[in-house]
Write a structure and sequence with these properties.
Blueprint: H1 2-17, H2 41-51, H3 63-76, E1 80-82, H4 102-125, H5 137-158, E2 161-162, E3 178-179, H6 181-198, H7 204-209, H8 217-234, H9 240-253, E4 263-265, H10 279-284, E5 295-297, H11 299-306, H12 320-323, E6 327-332, E7 335-340, H13 355-362, E8 387-390, H14 392-405, H15 415-427, H16 441-450, H17 456-466, H18 471-481, H19 508-513, H20 517-520
Helix pairs in contact: 1-2, 2-4, 3-4, 3-18, 4-5, 5-6, 5-8, 6-8, 6-9, 8-9, 8-14, 14-15, 14-17, 15-16, 15-17, 17-18
């Protein structure tokens, strides 16, 4: 709570520095250098850390999660589903039925760039000649790691973006050129390498500012190398040399060792409704975002969790009743009315259907979705629930894939061992939300026995399941691996020709406002693959 109270001041300071800025335009995303010496770089760093959980100096922790993480990727990746048909609501049917919503495609550009602005100022002021030169090494290096995390997410959404010339209006660069995704990834991996090595010693000021690890440099190094592993595997299908080089470096440097290393943003009920609370939770809580009324767990997800034998719990995934709160009604925040909490009775909503279609599909003209389909467990949706950025289970599963494919010098013989460790870690990480969500070693072992390891298919499916709630990364991993094998929807009037979106369109303000857009941007559509997925460089 101490750190979160400080964030309010940080956010206010950031807002003062950028008064009058239009965050829709890259040329405006800069801090007046004449004001910068009055700002503590640790405040800016803390604000950017919180921004990675969808808040930060924009002061709205629900906006990007509601519109993009939930509104597009959760249903496009078929972990959630909705009967909604309007493209105008924040969640509506943009990912479920591939209908366009402008706010959903704009949100990452509008919300990630301001945090990158804060990090750019931290890096500038802790560099040679900056007012904090030589005083904040660990803040500087951690800012470089977080910057790599945020820039990777931005380019994964859109493809080519301004990178080398971004955030340089104070140097006269008002219309930054676009960089190809391959060049961006090349530099992001270099940044992670240099920053992870350079972290050192004990820094009391950094510890006081650091929301994630409270200044624990060993944990920051592990996150730096774990993120390096993620990005190296992301390019592994299109640049084997880059992948081999950086998987090797990540393993040698030391990745996450347990769920205690997970990159988690702490949240709190107060003092600020808009800044400190979990944005995913707020999007679903009745009388706040309220989307729990129209969004359900998908048939694809529930069927996967229940296994091949739907009439028995023998092969059930222990996460079935972690992800699902059952079939229930949640009319007000303080009261959940459970209708069916039996694992055998859980049922997912098929994606791509409106209410009329669902009634026909179910053969029930009186169908009430709230009485029929499973929904997200409210225990995952408390206002002060932590916000997960990256976890140990993902790291182990990525190592399993690297070993299975012989990347980074890892032996194929080690793949199944990494896989089992990844599954175990993935299943046992939910106690941070509620102690009742514990999974025992015996449950994990029973699951692994019931569902034998099957190589890359098993790894890809488990990565998809691991990234529940972190739907933007689940979407990214599906685009990269092709697992699980999803059947696209084809709702009338969709804008993709019945194809699952491969990228986002660019904001109209960027299309119209940056002359370099025409010559440097990726194809401005939803179906062209980004570079690491096999598309143009």
């Amino acid at each position: 709570m101490k750190h979160l109270r400080k964030i309010i001041f940080s956010t206010a300071i950031s807002a003062l520095v950028v008064t009058g800025c239009n965050t829709n335009k890259l040329k405006d995303l800069n801090i007046d250098p004449s004001s910068a010496p009055t700002i503590d770089v640790n405040f800016l760093f803390t604000s950017a850390q919180l921004g990675a959980a969808s808040a930060g100096d924009q002061g709205d922790n629900r906006y990007i999660d509601w519109r993009t993480n939930i509104g597009i990727t959760s249903t496009a990746i078929q972990q959630l589903a909705t009967q909604g048909t309007s493209p105008n609501g924040p969640i509506s049917s943009t990912g479920d039925k591939y209908l366009e919503n402008v706010e959903s495609i704009n949100a990452p550009w509008e919300r990630i760039l301001p945090d990158l602005r804060n990090l750019a100022e931290v890096i500038k002021q802790t560099g040679s000649g900056g007012y904090a030169d030589g005083k904040s090494n660990n803040t500087r290096q951690a800012a470089r790691i977080l910057r790599a995390f945020l820039f990777s997410r931005l380019t994964d959404y859109y493809g080519s973006i301004p990178y080398t010339e971004a955030l340089q209006a104070t140097s006269g660069v008002f219309y930054p050129k676009y960089d190809k995704q391959k060049a961006i990834y090349t530099d992001l991996l270099k940044e992670l390498d240099e920053a992870s090595v350079a972290l050192s010693g004990v820094d009391a000021d950094f510890a006081a500012a650091d929301l994630y690890y409270k200044g624990d440099i060993a944990k920051w190094k592990r996150w730096g190398y774990s993120l390096m592993l993620r990005l190296a595997m992301r390019v592994s299908n299109v640049d084997a040399d880059m992948a081999n080089t950086y998987v090797t470096k990540a393993v040698a440097g030391g990745v996450f060792q347990s769920n205690e290393d997970n990159a988690v943003v702490p949240m709190a009920v107060g003092p600020s409704l808009w800044v400190n609370q979990n944005g995913i939770s707020r999007a679903f809580i009745p009388d706040d975002g309220g989307e729990i009324k129209s969004v359900f767990l998908s048939k694809t997800l529930i069927d996967f969790l229940k296994g091949a034998n739907a009439g028995s719990t023998v092969d059930d995934d222990p996460r079935l009743m972690i992800f699902s709160g059952g079939i229930y009604d949640w009319p007000v925040e303080t009261s959940v009315k459970i209708l069916n909490a039996d694992p055998l009775g859980q049922k997912g909503m098929p994606n791509g259907n409106d209410l009329s279609m669902l009634k026909s599909l179910e053969g029930n003209p009186s169908l009430v979705p709230e009485n029929t389909y499973s929904r997200i467990n409210p225990k995952l949706l408390n206002r002060d629930d932590p916000y997960m950025l990256m976890n140990y289970g993902e790291v182990k599963l990525l190592l399993a894939e690297a070993a299975q494919r012989g990347i980074g010098g890892l032996s194929a013989a080690a793949a199944e061992g990494y896989y089992k460790e990844g599954v175990k870690a993935s299943m046992q990480m939910y106690t941070i939300y509620d102690p009742s969500l514990a999974v025992t070693d015996a449950q994990v072992n029973a699951y692994l026995t019931a569902r034998p390891y099957a190589g890359l298919a098993s790894i890809g499916q488990q990565l998809w399941a691991n990234l529940f709630l972190n739907w933007w990364e689940a979407w990214t991993e599906w685009r990269r691996t092709g697992y699980p094998n999803l059947t696209p929807t084809h709702y009338p009037g969709n804008v993709t020709g019945g194809k699952i979106p491969q990228k986002l369109r660019y904001p109209t303000t960027e299309v119209a406002g940056n002359p370099n857009f025409k010559t440097g941007a990726s194809a401005n559509d939803y179906t062209t693959k980004v570079w690491w997925a096999g598309g143009p460089e």
